[in-house]
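Q: I'm writing up a methods section and want to include an example of the input and output format. Could you take the sequence below and give the corresponding predicted structure tokens, formatted cleanly so I can copy it straight into the document?
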Amino acid sequence: MVELGERIKGGEIRVIDDNAVFFSEIREGFPQGFNRIDWSKIPHNFDSILPGNDFKEKLIYFVSDFLKKNNLTRNGPVIYFGDAIDIAFEISLTCFYSISDRLFAVPQHSYVIDKDVSWCFNHTFEDEMYIGRSKKSPFIKI
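A: Here is the clean output for your methods example:
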């Protein structure tokens, strides 16, 4: 696997020095509870647990299936950030999938949003996954 540093140098990952603006975005776009997104209040929320060695396949299916069913952005850059680090990464979904094992090795609540914050993926410290549309995203019946 290509190291993160090489991907950054190659331009595949852009480092954003401060992730505070992205936490503000999810606070504005999603209902909050206990300093986190309250996923129970979001329509068409999906959740799952990532046990086992095939978590990348589960992750890819989980995210891509939700985006496809909800006609949400699957192209273009996304923003990855977490609550235990101060930086964020602007990356493609493909890159996110390929380095997710390294990103999730950091014990934290991790988030992925698209540039419009129309959806958010959340991987928790407990290996739970959540994904849902934000208040900014139009309701689309599935």
